Amino acid sequence: MFDPVIAPSGTLLGLLQRGRGDGTLHALTAPRAEALAALNHCVLRDPRHDWQVENRSLYYARLYLDLNGELDEIEAHLFDVEDAFDTDESRTGLALAVLGHLASYGRRDALALLRRYAASGANWTWALDELALRDDDAGLRALAAPVLARFAADAEGEAELAAAVRDAFEPRPWRLWAEDPRESIATRVRAAQETGCFDRWQRQMRPTGPRPGWSVQAVFEWAQQGVERGAALHVPAARCLSAVAGPEDRPEILSAAGDGSDGARCTALRYLADSNDPDALDLIEGAVTTGSTLVVEAAVDAFERMRSVAAVDRARRWARRPDPLGAAAGRMLACRGGAKDSELVLAALREAVRGEGPDAPTLWTLVDGAGRLGIACAAPVLRHVYRETASSHLRGRSARALAATDPSFATGFAVECLWDCEESTREIAARHAETGDARVVERLRRLAADPAEEAEVQTAVRSRIGPDAPAV
Q1: 258 and 144 inside one domain
Q2: Which domain holds residue 111?
Q3: Full DSSP string of 164-209
Q4: Structural domain tally of the chain?
Q5: Same domain flag for 134 and 257
Q6: Same domain flag for 142 and 225
């Protein structure tokens, strides 16, 4: 999947793509045709950079309900001829998840589309999972024949069926079909269930990688073999090293950390950092200066895992370095520093936004640190990240940090956060939004009454308006 093109944050499309609460608020006041066009664009061209983590489906489903939106474009997208050629679940996953939420709200047209797609679409497993949560037994039983027809009645087809049953996210349809009165269906499904259980047991029993009893050198060689195959094995290798290495092996490990092969060096650095070896910090600094890209990344990662006072002190020395170790030092201070480190964390936050933009991965930790340390001067930068980032998770972290640093949060961003796509962000808003705003009170009541809302959000809402607030 290619990275999506995100429209500017000041446009309706850009707001909806980001999942911002202001997207919903603007859509509800925009011309209906314009709002639906932007909404369909988002659902049919998933705007998330990490579609497996970021939430959008409930956010978009609620907007379809508010706009009384038709599902014609979703139907055309699902049943387009492209579905036969582009079978990546990211092409249709968001649309299917939106239909699932709409079905839970009682939209029968959404339920019908899910049933049709489960019977004939390429991403049928996703549609079936959505139906498993929302359809009745009769609707699911009707899908048994078309789903099983996907699998040939030969050894290869039965193996594929067993894998589908074993890997199903929601097992309810398969359990229903195993008890189907049609013996031909029930027999195939029960056999697939038994095969899947046996396959799972075999995988669990199959030994992988080194075991205690290996030598230190054997662990290093295994890690290097991984490098040569393009697989980074230094993390499991470091764990194995913890099992096989004794005090007498320390000189060999120190030597590998200083000038060993890439696999051995990465493994040794990780092991020494995890064990708080007194030479670990100097060796990490040397690795960042002389190592390959792989070694530098492993050294930085090993450093950030350290918890010692010595590591935090060293971070204060390294924080202004213009290299990956300096960036890691800023993140360490954001996580483990004290009030006296606020200036260094703020400097790292500003530099990251200037140099890498509002979607830089390093911002996740730095934004959290600004909030943890209560750095009031960070509020303008945090507001910029909140507005511009395409990541709804990073925006949520920015909202949490703003709640701790920005006195205007309760009457500003907290209000729009009540409509945000991420439940954790809605929870923050429910705890902080100023109830003097009539929109806030109405929204809190609707969230409290919405059966699709997360329990944590509803708990936060009821802490503000009471458990017996009437629905709006």
Answers
A1: no
A2: 12-205
A3: HHHH-S--HHHHHHHT-SSHHHHHHHHHHHHHHHHHHHHHHHS--S
A4: 2
A5: no
A6: no
- Match 């039965």 to its residue by tokens: 158
Report d(CA 260, CA 272) in Å as an integer.
14
Is the dihedral angle over the CA atoms 409, 414, 415, 416 positive or is it negative?
A: positive
Write down which residue in 288, 306, 324 finishes a domain. Answer: 306
Angle between helices 89-104 and 108-120 (to 10 degrees): 140
Alpha-carbon distance 442 to 415, whole Å?
A: 11
Spatial CA neighbour of 272 closest among 351, 449, 260: 260
Q: Is residue 447 part of a domain?
A: no
Is residue 146 located within the same domain as residue 260?
no
| Greatest distance between any 2 Cα atoms in the chain | 75
CA distance 268 to 254: 7
Q: Which of 415, 420, 419, 424 is nearest to 397 (CA)?
A: 424
In angstroms, rounded to a whole number, what is the distance separating the alpha carbons of residues 302 and 465? 46
Q: Are residues 141 and 277 in the same domain?
A: no
Residue positions counted in the chain: 472
CB 269 within 8 A of CB 256: no
Neighbouring C-beta atoms of residue 151, cutoff 10 Å:
18
For residue 440, count other CB atoms closer than 10 A to its CB. Answer: 21
Residue 200 in domain: yes
Considering the entire predicted model, what is its pTM? 0.89
Amino acid at 296: V
pLDDT score, position 196? 57
DSSP structural state of residue 49: S
Statement to judge: residues 64 and 191 lie in one domain: yes
Do 220 and 156 fall into the same domain? Answer: no
Predicted confidence (pLDDT) at residue 146 exceeds the cutoff of 90: yes
Boundary-marking domain end, from 163, 180, 205: 205
- Position 440: which residue type? V
Tens digit of pLDDT for each residue in 336-363?
999 999 999 999 999 999 999 999 999 9
CB 331 within 8 A of CB 365: yes
Write out the two tokens for 375: 């750095």
* Residue 136 shares a structural domain with residue 148: yes
Q: How far apart are CA 165 and CA 189, in angstroms?
A: 8
Q: Using one digit for the tens of pLDDT, what is the confidence trace for 360-412?
A: 999 999 999 999 999 999 999 999 999 999 999 999 999 999 999 999 999 99
Which two structure tokens, joined as six digits, stand for 376? 């009031």
Phi first, then psi, for residue 80 (nearest 5°) are -65, 155
Q: Residue 139 and residue 429: Cα distance in Å, rounded?
A: 39
